[in-house]
Amino acid sequence: MDTLHNNKTKIVATLGPSSDSVERLIQLIRSGVDVVRLNFSHGTHDDHLKTLRNVHEARERTGTFISVLQDLQGPKIRIGEFNEPHVELRQGGSFTITSEAITGDQQRVSTTYANLPHDVHVGDAILLDDGKVRLRVSEVKGSEVRCEVIVGGTLSAHKGINLPNVAVSTPSLTEKDIHDLDFGIKHDIDYVALSFVRTAEDIRTLRNEIIARIEPSRFLPIVAKVEKPQAIANIDAIIAEADAIMIARGDLGVELPTEDVPMLQKKIIKKCSEAGKPVIIATQMLESMINTPTPTRAEANDVANGVVDGADAVMLSGETSVGKFPLEAVQIMDRIIRRVEMENIEMSRVLDHPASGVSSRHDALGRAACVLAEQMNAAAIVCVTHSGETARVVSRYRPPTRILAITDRAKILRRLNLIWGVRGLVIENLVQDSDKAVKQIRERLLELELVQEGEYIVLLGGQPFFARGSTNFIEVEKVG
Fold this sequence. Notes:
Blueprint: E1 10-14, H1 22-31, E2 35-39, H2 45-62, E3 67-71, E4 86-89, E5 94-98, E6 108-110, H3 116-119, E7 125-128, E8 133-141, E9 144-151, E10 153-156, E11 161-162, H4 175-186, E12 191-194, H5 200-211, E13 222-226, H6 229-233, H7 235-241, E14 244-248, H8 249-255, H9 261-275, E15 279-282, H10 297-309, E16 313-316, H11 318-321, H12 326-342, H13 361-376, E17 380-384, H14 389-396, E18 402-407, H15 410-416, E19 422-426, H16 434-447, E20 456-462, E21 471-478
Parallel strand pairs: 1-2, 1-16, 2-3, 3-12, 5-6, 12-13, 13-14, 14-15, 15-16, 17-18, 17-20, 18-19
Antiparallel strand pairs: 4-10, 5-9, 7-8, 7-11, 8-9, 20-21
Helix pairs in contact: 1-2, 1-12, 5-7, 7-9, 10-12, 13-14
């Protein structure tokens, strides 16, 4: 049982040189991390295997169910090498990007993306190094894209290329991604994130690759990273197809006007909440803590607003992977979450949800459990679940009551680590007799001090216990 954490909004931490040792992982877990992210844009499979082994050891030593999110690189487009450490591009000057394999200089540079000359047109914007350098296409000739420098600056090797409003022809799932996916499946990762999603078809493509690689009884949830303008245009279909959404504000903020991102974030969170899909806010949440031990007030406010908006999770990237203060970043994020949640801000009282949003038996039972818990002032909503679906549905209604998932598989608790408000425990030998099972559950909750004698719990489950799709009863039980 994960008894370390009580916050409802979860924390995702990216691992790297600053955070991937066993001792550091134990510290991070005890400070509030629920999910660790492995960024496959960096490192070899040997590097990631070492990190995974450390995660498994830290999981065992803390007695928690820390989850692993594999983040596939996707078709990241970059420039190539220069013949010197960096070049200076001046506003009004010209600069050429070529698909030929050359060593760059002051006039031109190569790109990793062979189709660039076919995809861009005169007048298109090309952004380099997260938008710090801005070009406009003036001519496309053969393998060369000639540009005018609109915003100059210093440019060094391997910086990223962003192409806002360009229909990039490269697939979202690359050969490298498929190779990395094989590694992730082999090592039993809990979530896989797809980068640069543009349409729901991108997610279906990844889903088909997963299905072809795992046995029918397994399920690997897909997190769709929203970081392209095309994804915003197709957001409803993407949310419907994905298992979770990550609002990746880095590339999104480069390709869209900065002032558009805050309200887009709020709208996407609202859509995910209505669809019952978990949503992660990512990128630059406590960015200054890469180099300083405390965040800016604006960063603290950013985390707090994400909690108030109803995000399932907030994510740290460079702060924990390469930053100087990874532990402090997690501790501060955890404190911000706890402080906001202490305010009892009624983000979405269950009784305020219209009944028209109830679309299935699961939804109806989940909503009813929340209503009962609120009216009875219950200590917990206890979901007996085989797949985790029952707990996820209850979480959708954001009840003020604690949500406890009881399952027979640790894998399910790891999957639920990304879901708002859900904590859980494994009971592998739950008896099938309902009266005896309820007694067993009450005793286990008392033993772990999750409830106290005399308190009420709302129990949601089905018979036979731990059978897929069997949820069919709800009852109120007094503990003790």
